[in-house]
Design brief:
The chain is an alpha+beta fold and 743 residues long. It folds into four domains: 179 residues, Orthogonal Bundle (Hypothetical protein af1432); 139 residues, Beta-Lactamase; 69 residues; 148 residues, Heat Shock Protein 90 (2-Layer Sandwich), CATH 3.30.565. Helices cover 56% and strands 11% of the residues. It has 28 helices and 13 strands. The strands form three sheets. The chain has a six-stranded antiparallel sheet. A five-stranded mixed sheet has the order 8-10-11-13-12, covered by helices on one side. Helix 2 packs parallel to helix 18, helix 18 packs parallel to helix 22 and helix 22 runs antiparallel to helix 23. It is elongated and about 120 Å long.
């Protein structure tokens, strides 16, 4: 009883020692090859597949990684390379750098690690070939892996108790007993059980785990009840063939028996086995060359390769450190620019934007005095400038550019450069209350859309640093220029709105457009020209602002700052949509008139109107007279115009969808077709009718649409040779009368 307890205790100690293994030790020659690949710098994980597929410890390590990372083995010849490519490169690199090197035994070693690996290679190659010809449907790649790892338990025992393994091998040879029997007698457990438990803990594939466990068992009897042991049967036969062919050493010297019976179970004859055995030595030699098994001093090679990897990693570490410094610098600049952008209110005047940027520039770059001045508009000579003196105190100045001098020097009018301020802006510096030192004052442009919208003068405490900061100055000034350009564009838009209001209040635009009405045409043409100009002026700075804000938002990690940048992006997109509406109104595409069926055109208009209003069913009556069947217009443009008018008629009702009547008849001078859209909705008062066709006018309150529907309608009708008139009274409905050239 005591002896049994002692045996159980010994077995448990062995099992615990093996269970603590996180990986198996790798041959020094294989480790040297891997490290050399790694020291080459940029490598693809699949470049390592031949080495990994030839060394049992490496294959076991990566099969475990595949299980951890959820990577399945590929198929065909590239099975391992495909799986390796699916692993993150840093995982592969860490796995290589953390390998443990197997110790090289002396000349009297009973079972060398190298000989055991060669035997495993022989079993792997033979198992893959048997799987190909057996017709069992076993994947040759699976059979190969199972063969290479079938003695994984022996490798584990060598790693945790090398002296015990030597003693067991010596005893097996001296007594003629099998290694398995001696292991059980000496350790209380054998390598097949230990290998199985390790494979299960490392989550190796089930068929491979079974082959590791059962390659010494009675697989013929087991298979009758368990089909999953086919791979184990193949590995068992391959083990016998490899031992009989003298490939490496397995630790067992007894002559292999039962080859023919095991071949019969797999449906193979001796001629096939002899052919497999003949080719086996050359296959193993090829695999061993990949590992460098014949290397004279593999351990020395491994040390040299490790040194090369260490040097390469040191270089990479230096590069990473440099990149980290650059990232920290870029991050601080991002904080500076984000702080500036988030400080700007949507209603800020250009000079307020200039002040915010100038103050933050001085604080961030630790400069002396700063002056930011705006480029003059048109022929203006007066220039607004903001000056930041000591302790961040600001003052506003209005200076004059002398005749013959450029407010923005030509050298920076369309591109970035750092200039000596006194050489180019003596006229400006003389008019400021703050003195700038001649040797340290620098000038950079504030660019927006490829042109300077202002200039920035600042004192550098160390003028020689200007070249070092040139890239950072350029990035910061471009962001400042973009935001300043947006503010200037907003000011222009406001100016446009004020002039627009003057045009309207002066009565130069007619309120009701009737048949043959010429009054107000000149005012509308002026308005359209003004709209086109304003849209073109606003488009470029808006694009720059939106682009810069998006870049900042993508790089920002602070939630508050990112939210503020997203608000800026959304505002810029909304402004861009308004600009697009302006351009569509001011410069519509040229019409392509053709004979158009009026009934079909009205039907298309109705469908468009339903989409615009979200109305599924509308109470509408359409009547087309005999003399009004065709018109000569661009059907797409006119259908869109009529759709806007019908949409207004639908929206004039509250809580119902009609009735609406569309009537077409011959009428008007010159054989025109008269098309009327009539509703009984809420109607409009005279003042609303007068302004109804103005761009951006709407009788709706907050949250209204842009008010371009009737403006577009009138524009499209007129460029197609038509006219639009509106008659309406509050509470009685509206009639829109359209005249179109007859077909």
């Amino acid at each position: 009883m005591a002896d049994t307890s002692r045996d159980d205790l010994a077995a448990r100690q062995v099992e615990l020692a093996v269970s603590r293994l996180e990986s198996l030790c790798v041959l020094p020659c294989a480790a040297a090859r891997l490290l050399r690949k790694l020291s080459e710098g940029r490598f693809s994980p699949s470049d390592l597949n031949e080495i990994i597929a030839s060394e049992p410890a490496l294959l076991a390590r990566f099969l475990r990684l595949f299980a951890q990372e959820g990577v399945s083995l590929g198929a065909g010849e590239s099975w391992l390379g495909v799986a390796l490519e699916r692993l993150p490169a840093e995982v592969v690199r860490e796995a290589i750098l953390s390998v443990e090197i197997a110790a090289e035994g002396g000349k009297d070693e009973k079972l060398s690690r190298k000989a055991l690996v060669l035997h495993s290679l022989g079993v792997a190659c033979c198992a893959a070939n048997i799987a190909r010809i057996s017709g069992f449907g076993v994947d040759p790649n699976e059979a190969y892996c199972a063969g290479l790892l079938h003695d994984m338990g022996k490798l584990a025992l060598q790693d945790v108790m090398p002296r015990s393994v030597e003693r067991i091998v010596e005893q097996a040879r001296a007594t003629g007993r099998s290694l398995l029997d001696v292991e059980r007698a000496e350790l209380g457990v054998d390598h097949s059980v230990l290998g199985k438990r390790l494979a299960r803990r490392w989550r190796l594939p089930g068929a491979i785990t079974l082959a590791i466990w059962l390659h010494h068992g009675n697989t013929g009897a087991i298979r009758a009840a368990l089909e999953e042991v086919r791979t184990a049967q193949i590995v068992q036969l391959a083990d016998l063939i490899a031992r009989r062919s003298g490939v490496g050493q397995s630790g067992s010297d007894e002559m292999p028996e039962g080859v023919e019976s095991k071949a019969d179970l797999l449906g193979l004859d001796m001629e096939q086995l002899d052919r497999l055995a003949r080719d086996l030595l050359s296959e193993v030699a090829e695999k061993s060359n990949v590992l460098g098994v014949d290397s004279a001093d593999a351990l020395l090679e491994c040390c040299r390769a490790a040194g090369a990897v260490a040097a390469a990693l040191a270089r990479q570490q230096s590069e990473i450190a440099r990149e980290n410094r650059a990232v920290r610098s870029a991050s601080s600049h991002l904080d500076f620019l984000t702080d500036f952008v988030t400080s700007i209110d949507s209603a800020a005047e250009p000079i307020e934007v200039a002040e915010s940027f100038a103050v933050r520039w001085q604080r961030f770059y630790q400069t002396g005095a700063v002056c930011l001045y705006l480029a003059p508009l048109g022929g203006e000579k007066r220039i607004d400038a903001i000056v930041v003196g000591g302790l961040g105190r600001t003052s506003l100045s209005c200076v004059e550019a002398p005749d013959g001098s450029r407010a923005i020097p030509e050298a920076i009018a369309g591109g970035f450069a750092i200039l000596n301020a006194h050489e180019h802006l003596e006229w400006l510096l003389e008019q400021l209350d703050v003195e700038f030192e001649a040797g340290s004052a620098r000038l950079v442009p504030l660019l927006c859309g490829g042109r300077a919208v202002g200039g920035l003068v600042f004192e550098l405490h160390y003028p020689g640093d200007a070249a070092l900061f040139e890239e950072k100055f350029e990035r910061s000034s471009c962001v400042g220029g973009a935001v300043l350009g947006m503010a200037l564009a907003g000011a222009k838009e406001q100016d446009f709105a004020e002039r627009f209001a003057c045009v309207v209040s002066d009565g130069r635009v007619a309120g009701e457009v009737r048949e043959g009405l010429a009054e107000g045409a000149e005012g509308l043409e002026a308005l359209e020209e003004m709209a086109a100009g304003a849209a073109h002026e606003l488009n470029n700075p808006l694009a720059v602002v939106l682009g810069r804000a998006q870049l900042l938002a993508e790089a920002e990690t602070d939630a508050r700052k990112k939210e503020a940048l997203d608000v800026i992006c959304e505002g810029a997109r909304e402004a861009a949509a308004i600009v697009e509406a302006l351009m569509g109104y001011a410069e519509p595409p040229s019409p392509r008139p053709a004979r158009t069926d009026v009934g079909q055109m009205v039907e298309e208009s109705l469908q468009l109107a339903k989409l615009k209003t979200g109305s599924e069913h509308v109470n509408i009556q359409v009547e087309v007279g005999e003399g009004a069947r065709e018109v000569f217009v661009d059907s797409g443009q006119v259908a869109s115009a009529v759709a806007n008018i019908i949409a207004n008629a639908i929206e004039s009702y509250e809580g119902q969808l009609g009735p609406i009547k569309v009537k077409a008849e011959r009428g008007g001078a010159g054989g025109m077709v008269k098309l009327q859209v009539m509703d009984l909705g809420c109607g409009m008062d005279s003042e609303t009718v007068r302004k109804a066709m103005f761009p951006f006018f709407s009788a709706k309150g907050a949250g209204r649409k842009r008010g371009m529907g009737l403006a577009y309608a009138r524009r499209f009708l007129e460029i197609n040779g038509g006219k639009l008139a509106i008659e309406s009274r509050r509470g009685t409905g509206t009639t829109a009368t359209i005249y179109l050239p007859a077909g």
